[in-house]
Amino acid sequence: MSYPSFPQQGFNSFARALSPAAIGVANAASGADPSGNTEFSRRLAALGMARTHDEIMLTIPGRYREALRPHLEALARHADLGYGTKVALGRLQLHKAKKTLPSQLAGLKAPLFQVHAEFKDSNPPLIAELTKLHDQYRLDALDMAIALRQAELNHFDDLVAPLNYLPALATCVEATYASIKDTYRRPVFGKNANGEVTVETFEEDPIYKMEFQRLESDLSQYAYRILSLVYDKLSVEEAKLKAKETLKDRMDVEVGDEVINATAIKDQVDRSIQSALARLGATQSAHPPSRVGVAEEDRRQEPPELNLVAALAAGHRFKFKLARYVVSPRLSAEADSGDVVVEPIVVVAEAKLVVRRGGDDCRPVLTFENFYNVYRGF
Protein backbone atom coordinates (compact mmCIF):
# COMPACT_ATOMS: atom_id res chain seq x y z
CA MET A 1 0.00 0.00 0.00
CA SER A 2 1.45 3.36 -0.98
CA TYR A 3 0.99 6.56 0.93
CA PRO A 4 1.05 10.07 -0.50
CA SER A 5 4.30 11.88 0.19
CA PHE A 6 4.70 15.40 1.48
CA PRO A 7 5.49 17.98 -1.18
CA GLN A 8 9.22 18.61 -1.54
CA GLN A 9 8.80 22.19 -2.75
CA GLY A 10 7.45 24.69 -0.25
CA PHE A 11 7.23 22.18 2.60
CA ASN A 12 7.27 24.97 5.19
CA SER A 13 4.19 26.54 3.63
CA PHE A 14 2.48 23.13 3.48
CA ALA A 15 3.24 22.40 7.13
CA ARG A 16 2.13 25.85 8.25
CA ALA A 17 -1.17 25.40 6.39
CA LEU A 18 -1.89 22.43 8.69
CA SER A 19 -0.95 24.29 11.86
CA PRO A 20 -3.50 25.44 14.47
CA ALA A 21 -2.53 29.05 13.69
CA ALA A 22 -3.74 28.74 10.12
CA ILE A 23 -6.99 27.15 11.25
CA GLY A 24 -7.47 29.94 13.78
CA VAL A 25 -6.96 32.62 11.13
CA ALA A 26 -9.44 30.90 8.82
CA ASN A 27 -12.04 30.61 11.58
CA ALA A 28 -11.61 34.24 12.55
CA ALA A 29 -11.93 35.30 8.92
CA SER A 30 -15.12 33.31 8.46
CA GLY A 31 -16.71 34.76 11.59
CA ALA A 32 -18.40 38.07 12.15
CA ASP A 33 -16.46 40.91 10.54
CA PRO A 34 -16.90 44.34 12.19
CA SER A 35 -16.75 45.95 8.76
CA GLY A 36 -19.57 43.74 7.52
CA ASN A 37 -17.42 42.43 4.68
CA THR A 38 -17.02 38.80 5.71
CA GLU A 39 -16.13 37.72 2.17
CA PHE A 40 -13.20 40.16 2.11
CA SER A 41 -11.78 38.73 5.36
CA ARG A 42 -11.97 35.19 4.03
CA ARG A 43 -10.01 36.09 0.92
CA LEU A 44 -7.23 37.69 2.95
CA ALA A 45 -6.85 34.82 5.43
CA ALA A 46 -4.17 33.10 3.31
CA LEU A 47 -2.41 36.39 2.63
CA GLY A 48 -2.08 37.03 6.35
CA MET A 49 -0.21 33.72 6.79
CA ALA A 50 2.32 34.44 4.01
CA ARG A 51 5.82 35.03 5.37
CA THR A 52 7.89 35.45 2.21
CA HIS A 53 7.59 37.32 -1.07
CA ASP A 54 7.10 34.06 -2.98
CA GLU A 55 4.30 32.95 -0.66
CA ILE A 56 2.51 36.26 -1.22
CA MET A 57 2.79 35.77 -4.98
CA LEU A 58 1.23 32.31 -4.66
CA THR A 59 -1.96 33.85 -3.23
CA ILE A 60 -2.47 35.89 -6.43
CA PRO A 61 -4.58 34.20 -9.15
CA GLY A 62 -2.32 32.52 -11.68
CA ARG A 63 -3.52 34.59 -14.64
CA TYR A 64 -2.29 37.78 -13.00
CA ARG A 65 0.69 36.51 -10.99
CA GLU A 66 3.51 37.01 -13.49
CA ALA A 67 2.10 40.32 -14.70
CA LEU A 68 2.12 41.73 -11.16
CA ARG A 69 5.44 40.19 -10.09
CA PRO A 70 7.78 42.93 -11.46
CA HIS A 71 5.59 45.66 -9.96
CA LEU A 72 5.55 44.10 -6.49
CA GLU A 73 9.28 43.29 -6.65
CA ALA A 74 9.99 46.92 -7.55
CA LEU A 75 7.84 48.04 -4.61
CA ALA A 76 9.85 45.86 -2.21
CA ARG A 77 13.14 47.09 -3.70
CA HIS A 78 12.13 50.74 -3.36
CA ALA A 79 11.18 50.19 0.28
CA ASP A 80 14.54 48.55 0.95
CA LEU A 81 16.48 51.33 -0.78
CA GLY A 82 14.47 53.97 1.04
CA TYR A 83 15.33 52.41 4.38
CA GLY A 84 19.04 52.35 3.52
CA THR A 85 18.86 55.99 2.49
CA LYS A 86 17.14 56.87 5.77
CA VAL A 87 19.94 55.18 7.74
CA ALA A 88 22.61 57.01 5.74
CA LEU A 89 20.82 60.33 6.30
CA GLY A 90 20.66 59.68 10.03
CA ARG A 91 24.41 59.07 10.18
CA LEU A 92 25.16 62.33 8.38
CA GLN A 93 22.83 64.23 10.70
CA LEU A 94 24.54 62.61 13.69
CA HIS A 95 27.92 63.81 12.40
CA LYS A 96 26.56 67.33 12.12
CA ALA A 97 25.11 67.21 15.63
CA LYS A 98 28.40 65.92 17.10
CA LYS A 99 30.44 68.36 14.96
CA THR A 100 32.36 65.51 13.36
CA LEU A 101 32.87 64.57 9.72
CA PRO A 102 32.10 61.38 7.77
CA SER A 103 35.01 59.46 6.30
CA GLN A 104 34.44 60.95 2.84
CA LEU A 105 35.19 64.43 4.22
CA ALA A 106 37.50 63.59 7.12
CA GLY A 107 40.04 62.21 4.65
CA LEU A 108 40.26 65.50 2.77
CA LYS A 109 43.46 67.25 3.77
CA ALA A 110 44.07 70.95 3.48
CA PRO A 111 46.23 71.87 0.47
CA LEU A 112 49.83 72.51 1.48
CA PHE A 113 51.70 75.22 -0.39
CA GLN A 114 55.40 75.32 0.40
CA VAL A 115 56.72 78.72 1.40
CA HIS A 116 60.12 79.77 2.67
CA ALA A 117 60.69 79.57 6.40
CA GLU A 118 61.64 83.23 6.62
CA PHE A 119 58.27 84.16 5.16
CA LYS A 120 56.30 81.57 7.17
CA ASP A 121 57.75 82.77 10.46
CA SER A 122 56.23 86.17 9.83
CA ASN A 123 52.81 84.45 10.24
CA PRO A 124 51.02 85.99 7.29
CA PRO A 125 47.20 85.85 7.54
CA LEU A 126 46.88 84.22 4.12
CA ILE A 127 48.07 80.85 5.46
CA ALA A 128 45.38 80.88 8.15
CA GLU A 129 42.80 81.91 5.57
CA LEU A 130 43.61 78.84 3.45
CA THR A 131 43.03 76.56 6.43
CA LYS A 132 39.80 78.37 7.28
CA LEU A 133 38.53 78.02 3.71
CA HIS A 134 39.29 74.29 3.76
CA ASP A 135 37.43 73.76 7.05
CA GLN A 136 34.44 75.74 5.82
CA TYR A 137 34.36 73.73 2.58
CA ARG A 138 34.07 70.47 4.50
CA LEU A 139 31.23 71.85 6.61
CA ASP A 140 29.41 73.11 3.52
CA ALA A 141 29.96 69.75 1.81
CA LEU A 142 28.40 67.98 4.81
CA ASP A 143 25.32 70.21 4.54
CA MET A 144 25.06 69.46 0.83
CA ALA A 145 25.41 65.72 1.49
CA ILE A 146 22.56 65.90 4.01
CA ALA A 147 20.40 67.74 1.48
CA LEU A 148 21.28 65.14 -1.17
CA ARG A 149 20.31 62.24 1.08
CA GLN A 150 17.09 63.99 2.07
CA ALA A 151 16.14 64.43 -1.59
CA GLU A 152 16.91 60.76 -2.23
CA LEU A 153 14.77 59.73 0.73
CA ASN A 154 11.88 61.87 -0.54
CA HIS A 155 12.20 60.16 -3.92
CA PHE A 156 11.85 56.66 -2.49
CA ASP A 157 9.07 57.77 -0.13
CA ASP A 158 7.13 58.93 -3.16
CA LEU A 159 7.66 55.58 -4.89
CA VAL A 160 6.17 53.64 -1.96
CA ALA A 161 3.25 56.04 -1.47
CA PRO A 162 -0.10 54.28 -2.24
CA LEU A 163 -1.27 57.14 -4.46
CA ASN A 164 1.71 56.52 -6.74
CA TYR A 165 2.02 52.72 -6.97
CA LEU A 166 -1.63 51.61 -6.75
CA PRO A 167 -2.65 53.12 -10.12
CA ALA A 168 0.16 51.18 -11.82
CA LEU A 169 -0.98 47.93 -10.17
CA ALA A 170 -4.61 48.52 -11.15
CA THR A 171 -3.61 49.33 -14.74
CA CYS A 172 -1.65 46.08 -14.93
CA VAL A 173 -4.61 44.03 -13.65
CA GLU A 174 -7.07 45.72 -16.02
CA ALA A 175 -4.77 45.18 -19.01
CA THR A 176 -4.41 41.51 -18.14
CA TYR A 177 -8.16 41.06 -17.77
CA ALA A 178 -8.80 42.83 -21.09
CA SER A 179 -6.52 40.31 -22.81
CA ILE A 180 -8.35 37.26 -21.43
CA LYS A 181 -12.01 38.27 -21.15
CA ASP A 182 -12.66 37.69 -24.86
CA THR A 183 -10.80 34.37 -24.82
CA TYR A 184 -12.63 32.99 -21.80
CA ARG A 185 -16.19 34.01 -22.71
CA ARG A 186 -19.17 31.95 -21.56
CA PRO A 187 -21.32 30.44 -24.33
CA VAL A 188 -25.10 30.91 -24.40
CA PHE A 189 -26.75 27.73 -25.68
CA GLY A 190 -30.05 27.39 -27.54
CA LYS A 191 -31.87 25.07 -29.94
CA ASN A 192 -32.59 25.47 -33.60
CA ALA A 193 -35.79 24.53 -35.45
CA ASN A 194 -34.70 20.92 -35.57
CA GLY A 195 -34.23 20.77 -31.82
CA GLU A 196 -30.44 20.64 -32.01
CA VAL A 197 -28.32 22.38 -29.39
CA THR A 198 -26.46 25.35 -30.79
CA VAL A 199 -24.32 28.22 -29.44
CA GLU A 200 -26.37 31.31 -29.93
CA THR A 201 -23.84 33.85 -28.60
CA PHE A 202 -21.01 34.45 -26.13
CA GLU A 203 -21.09 36.66 -23.11
CA GLU A 204 -18.58 37.83 -20.54
CA ASP A 205 -17.94 35.06 -18.03
CA PRO A 206 -19.08 36.28 -14.59
CA ILE A 207 -16.56 33.99 -12.84
CA TYR A 208 -13.53 35.63 -14.47
CA LYS A 209 -15.11 39.04 -14.04
CA MET A 210 -15.60 38.42 -10.33
CA GLU A 211 -12.00 37.21 -10.04
CA PHE A 212 -10.79 40.42 -11.67
CA GLN A 213 -12.95 42.64 -9.47
CA ARG A 214 -11.86 40.90 -6.28
CA LEU A 215 -8.17 41.10 -7.18
CA GLU A 216 -8.43 44.77 -8.06
CA SER A 217 -10.09 45.55 -4.73
CA ASP A 218 -7.40 43.55 -2.87
CA LEU A 219 -4.37 45.18 -4.55
CA SER A 220 -3.72 47.52 -1.64
CA GLN A 221 -3.60 44.59 0.79
CA TYR A 222 -1.06 42.74 -1.36
CA ALA A 223 1.12 45.86 -1.50
CA TYR A 224 0.82 46.47 2.25
CA ARG A 225 1.82 42.89 2.97
CA ILE A 226 4.89 43.18 0.71
CA LEU A 227 5.95 46.38 2.48
CA SER A 228 5.29 44.82 5.88
CA LEU A 229 7.70 41.96 5.19
CA VAL A 230 10.42 44.37 4.08
CA TYR A 231 10.02 46.66 7.09
CA ASP A 232 9.90 43.74 9.53
CA LYS A 233 13.19 42.37 8.19
CA LEU A 234 14.85 45.78 8.27
CA SER A 235 13.67 46.47 11.82
CA VAL A 236 15.33 43.25 12.99
CA GLU A 237 18.59 44.26 11.29
CA GLU A 238 18.39 47.71 12.86
CA ALA A 239 17.90 46.19 16.32
CA LYS A 240 20.98 43.99 15.84
CA LEU A 241 23.05 46.98 14.70
CA LYS A 242 21.98 49.05 17.72
CA ALA A 243 22.84 46.16 20.04
CA LYS A 244 26.34 45.92 18.53
CA GLU A 245 26.88 49.67 18.83
CA THR A 246 25.74 49.60 22.45
CA LEU A 247 28.13 46.73 23.23
CA LYS A 248 31.01 48.53 21.52
CA ASP A 249 30.36 51.74 23.46
CA ARG A 250 30.25 49.81 26.72
CA MET A 251 33.51 48.01 25.95
CA ASP A 252 35.18 51.29 24.99
CA VAL A 253 34.24 52.70 28.39
CA GLU A 254 35.43 49.59 30.26
CA VAL A 255 38.72 49.19 28.40
CA GLY A 256 39.53 52.83 27.78
CA ASP A 257 42.99 53.79 26.58
CA GLU A 258 44.98 51.69 29.00
CA VAL A 259 48.47 50.84 27.72
CA ILE A 260 50.48 47.78 28.75
CA ASN A 261 54.21 47.81 28.07
CA ALA A 262 56.09 44.88 26.58
CA THR A 263 57.78 43.91 29.84
CA ALA A 264 54.49 43.61 31.73
CA ILE A 265 52.97 41.53 28.94
CA LYS A 266 56.01 39.22 28.86
CA ASP A 267 55.93 38.65 32.62
CA GLN A 268 52.23 37.79 32.60
CA VAL A 269 52.62 35.50 29.59
CA ASP A 270 55.52 33.67 31.26
CA ARG A 271 53.43 33.07 34.36
CA SER A 272 50.46 31.91 32.28
CA ILE A 273 52.64 29.46 30.33
CA GLN A 274 54.06 27.92 33.47
CA SER A 275 50.56 27.60 34.94
CA ALA A 276 49.25 26.02 31.74
CA LEU A 277 52.13 23.53 31.64
CA ALA A 278 51.40 22.53 35.21
CA ARG A 279 47.73 21.88 34.33
CA LEU A 280 48.82 19.81 31.32
CA GLY A 281 51.05 17.69 33.53
CA ALA A 282 54.32 18.55 31.74
CA THR A 283 57.23 16.79 33.51
CA GLN A 284 60.96 17.37 33.67
CA SER A 285 61.53 14.44 31.29
CA ALA A 286 59.72 16.08 28.37
CA HIS A 287 62.12 16.64 25.47
CA PRO A 288 61.89 18.91 22.44
CA PRO A 289 61.69 17.42 18.94
CA SER A 290 64.88 16.28 17.24
CA ARG A 291 66.82 18.92 15.37
CA VAL A 292 69.12 18.25 12.45
CA GLY A 293 72.82 18.74 13.25
CA VAL A 294 72.49 18.49 17.06
CA ALA A 295 74.37 15.66 18.69
CA GLU A 296 72.62 13.16 20.95
CA GLU A 297 74.89 14.17 23.85
CA ASP A 298 73.81 17.81 23.48
CA ARG A 299 70.14 16.86 23.57
CA ARG A 300 70.66 14.85 26.74
CA GLN A 301 72.39 17.80 28.38
CA GLU A 302 69.63 20.27 27.61
CA PRO A 303 68.16 21.79 30.77
CA PRO A 304 64.70 20.70 31.92
CA GLU A 305 63.29 24.20 31.25
CA LEU A 306 63.08 23.28 27.55
CA ASN A 307 60.02 21.13 28.25
CA LEU A 308 58.13 24.33 27.34
CA VAL A 309 59.51 24.07 23.81
CA ALA A 310 58.38 20.46 23.60
CA ALA A 311 54.88 21.34 24.75
CA LEU A 312 54.62 24.17 22.25
CA ALA A 313 55.99 22.00 19.45
CA ALA A 314 53.38 19.36 20.31
CA GLY A 315 50.68 21.82 19.34
CA HIS A 316 49.43 22.93 22.75
CA ARG A 317 47.72 26.30 22.85
CA PHE A 318 47.55 28.62 25.81
CA LYS A 319 45.36 31.57 26.70
CA PHE A 320 47.09 34.40 28.49
CA LYS A 321 44.98 36.79 30.50
CA LEU A 322 46.62 40.21 30.49
CA ALA A 323 44.76 42.52 32.86
CA ARG A 324 41.61 43.42 30.85
CA TYR A 325 43.07 42.01 27.67
CA VAL A 326 42.92 38.41 26.44
CA VAL A 327 45.69 37.29 24.09
CA SER A 328 45.71 33.79 22.59
CA PRO A 329 48.96 33.26 20.62
CA ARG A 330 50.00 30.13 18.72
CA LEU A 331 53.77 29.81 19.16
CA SER A 332 56.29 27.52 17.44
CA ALA A 333 59.60 26.15 18.72
CA GLU A 334 61.58 27.54 15.78
CA ALA A 335 61.37 31.18 16.83
CA ASP A 336 58.82 31.98 14.12
CA SER A 337 56.13 34.60 14.57
CA GLY A 338 52.85 33.09 15.68
CA ASP A 339 49.30 34.12 14.93
CA VAL A 340 47.58 36.15 17.62
CA VAL A 341 43.81 35.79 18.16
CA VAL A 342 42.27 38.56 20.18
CA GLU A 343 38.76 39.28 21.37
CA PRO A 344 36.93 41.52 21.69
CA ILE A 345 39.12 44.70 21.96
CA VAL A 346 42.77 44.24 22.84
CA VAL A 347 46.28 45.38 22.31
CA VAL A 348 48.14 42.74 20.34
CA ALA A 349 51.81 42.04 19.78
CA GLU A 350 53.42 39.53 17.47
CA ALA A 351 54.99 36.91 19.72
CA LYS A 352 58.27 35.08 19.10
CA LEU A 353 59.77 32.19 21.04
CA VAL A 354 63.57 32.49 21.16
CA VAL A 355 65.77 29.76 22.65
CA ARG A 356 68.96 31.18 24.11
CA ARG A 357 71.95 28.83 24.34
CA GLY A 358 75.34 29.06 25.92
CA GLY A 359 76.44 29.19 29.52
CA ASP A 360 73.89 28.65 32.23
CA ASP A 361 71.20 30.68 30.45
CA CYS A 362 69.39 28.19 28.20
CA ARG A 363 65.75 29.14 28.58
CA PRO A 364 63.00 29.86 26.07
CA VAL A 365 62.25 33.57 26.04
CA LEU A 366 59.07 35.19 24.69
CA THR A 367 59.56 38.50 22.91
CA PHE A 368 56.85 40.88 21.68
CA GLU A 369 56.94 43.46 18.92
CA ASN A 370 54.72 45.29 16.45
CA PHE A 371 51.97 46.40 18.83
CA TYR A 372 48.70 47.42 17.22
CA ASN A 373 45.02 47.77 18.14
CA VAL A 374 42.52 45.16 17.00
CA TYR A 375 38.73 45.63 16.99
CA ARG A 376 36.99 42.32 16.50
CA GLY A 377 33.41 41.10 16.78
CA PHE A 378 31.65 44.44 16.18
In short:
The chain is built from 14 helices and seven strands. It is an alpha+beta fold. The protein has two domains: 50-254, no CATH class; 262-290 and 297-375, no CATH class.
Alpha-carbon distance between the termini?
57 Å
What count of helical segments does DSSP give? 14
Q: How do the helices and strands follow one another from N- to C-terminus?
A: HHHHHHHHHHEEHHHHEEEEE
Largest sheet: 3 strands, antiparallel
Tell me, briefly, the overall form: elongated
Strand order of the largest sheet: 3-4-5
Count of folded domains:
2
Radius of gyration, in angstroms, nearest whole number: 37 Å
Q: Assign the structural class, choosing from mainly alpha, mainly beta, alpha/beta, alpha+beta, or little secondary structure.
A: alpha+beta
**Portion of residues in helices?**
55-70%
What's the pLDDT, averaged over the residues? 69
Question: How many runs of DSSP E, i.e. beta strands?
Answer: 7
Strand content: 5-15%
Instruction: Note poorly predicted spans.
Output: 1-36, 282-309, 315-359, 361-378
Region (Disordered): 280-300
What does this protein look like?
- The protein has 378 residues and is of the alpha+beta class.
- It has two domains: 50-254, no CATH class; 262-290 and 297-375, no CATH class.
- 57% of the residues lie in helices and 12% in strands.
- It has 14 helices and seven strands.
- The strands form three sheets. It has a three-stranded antiparallel beta sheet. A two-stranded antiparallel sheet has the order 1-2. The protein has a two-stranded antiparallel ribbon with strand order 6-7.
- Strand 1 (186-191) and strand 2 form a beta hairpin.
- Residues 1-36, 282-309, 315-359 and 361-378 have low confidence and may be disordered.
- Residues 280-300 are annotated as: Disordered.
